[in-house]
Amino acid sequence: MTQLLDVDGMTRWIRTEGVERILLRMVGCLEEDFRRWEQFERIPRIASHSPGGVIELMPTTDGHDYSFKYVNGHPGNPARGLQTVTAFGVLADVGTGYPVFVSEMTLLTALRTAATSALAARVLARPDAEVLALIGAGSQAEFQALAFRAVLGIEELRVLDLDPAAVTKLRANLAPLGFRIHVARSVDDVVDGADVVTTCTADKSRARVLCSEQVAPGVHLNAIGGDCPGKTELDPRILERARVVVEHTAQTRIEGELQQMPPDFPVTELWQVLTGAAPGRTREDEVTLFDSVGFAIADFSALRCARDATLGTDLVHPIGLVAEPEDPKDLFSLVHAPVPVR
Amino acid sequence: MTQLLDVDGMTRWIRTEGVERILLRMVGCLEEDFRRWEQFERIPRIASHSPGGVIELMPTTDGHDYSFKYVNGHPGNPARGLQTVTAFGVLADVGTGYPVFVSEMTLLTALRTAATSALAARVLARPDAEVLALIGAGSQAEFQALAFRAVLGIEELRVLDLDPAAVTKLRANLAPLGFRIHVARSVDDVVDGADVVTTCTADKSRARVLCSEQVAPGVHLNAIGGDCPGKTELDPRILERARVVVEHTAQTRIEGELQQMPPDFPVTELWQVLTGAAPGRTREDEVTLFDSVGFAIADFSALRCARDATLGTDLVHPIGLVAEPEDPKDLFSLVHAPVPVR
């Protein structure tokens, strides 16, 4: 039977193992899968846009397992007490086509996005990076901070958000965990002295949360908020200066900061850097940009990571998603009510 | 919370309400949605092919509800005691992006495929049709028979399958329900005197289960087995003779019997016939063909039909698919373990 890792199971897994330990585990799964990138079927996500947001399906397969994620993005949700982004996902057996594992992925996506950011920063940021600026203090922010601490040892944060309550929340969550946190009053303030800048804002429009003059030489930019057509965060002049690394070029040209650049603008894919086929950071003063939109292969990694850690434990439970008649050609037997006596 | 209609709930619903009554209910939903066809986003399904079969995602939306179906097709499955086709699906709220209703769809797809066939036959078969030939006696066969009885009043069946056990099963299931059943020994035998011929075989190849000489004038063909690239059931000369009706032209040209014809081969879409924009059967002796591959809008109809019939009853139960932190920007609060005393 299909096994379900629901919100309760996911929460217990993360609380028990610990966010940072799971982030490191996930960085390991991501790196393994990015290194075998060419074994995966790379299917662009299927997006359905509406005035309030977007609903997407993100499938991929390595020929053995098949995965897809359902994910929405609705910037107006928090005002109604709802999440901007929620998600769930499925792993299936390619050999039989049967769904094997269903998981909540709101939390899992938060983990995989942060783990992917940190994995990219490991090869793109300066090795002596000590200060992380967070522009946007929403749901993703704490996971970013913990991933950068787990992978790069960063404990100093500078934070900026238009919503003061979000900043207060972030400080309340992270200060007790040992982070030093500076609450910034402006973009100039938040980037001052930062070695890595994560932009993670949710506006569904062409925003410029950062202009080129605000990006110092040697900075690594981790842009994760610009992730659908018409939604960007960066001044295009930053891209002209930067070494740009992406997950999957075809998708990022449509959805990422790249949509502001000509179609032949040169980029490197992260898997190429991880396998050594392309260099990571080449100079101390280079500006690097990970233009991250989230790709299905990272969700595949996150799902198998969660499956491997939870299958066989009481964190999961079976759900009746697949009809199983005794004779596979006799589906009708399942619904055939007893014949009334005539 | 998201509500789940699992196999147990689906089975109880169908047994309680009765297959034929649900088929009629579903024909109603399908007709409503096909009549407002142009309100739907028509996205071709996303297929992932492997040597053993195919896994597909089939999304659509009417701007209010969003639906997708996960479905596989693995012809080798029955030999391992597994279903050729299994499926599940989801309805979500376009306004918030939240998944609202998850349903098993192996049974539901069997119902919607049969209901769609009968709906198309209602406008394409001769009104005096009395005999249905079934080529292929697999999981879909009984549902076809019941749908044609519910909608067209047909009670006389002629059945052919390479697998004698499948035919025995079909007879055991349907004879007690009042059908008169002739077990045919050949294609010529099965089509002899048939007014409607349903082809529903599972081979993943270019098959010719029916050649043009075997199709009498006035017959309505309901071809549902040819439903992915490289998989067809009919002699192309049949298509040359027939009035061909499809669900969604762009998809059928890739996946249906139509893939054997030139790209400009003329077809009519079923919604056009149902709205009166195009005629149904025009002559007594016309050969009509519903080249059915299954389209996402029919799954949308089936899902909303099941949702409307089961929400608020004990047939469904809540599952924890969406994380719900008190503060929507504080997802981290869900996994934040208590800080140890220092």
TrEMBL record, chains A, B:
It comes from the Bacteria. Pfam families: OCD_Mu_crystall (PF02423). The lineage of its organism: Bacteria, Bacillati, Actinomycetota, Actinomycetes, Micrococcales. This is Ornithine cyclodeaminase.
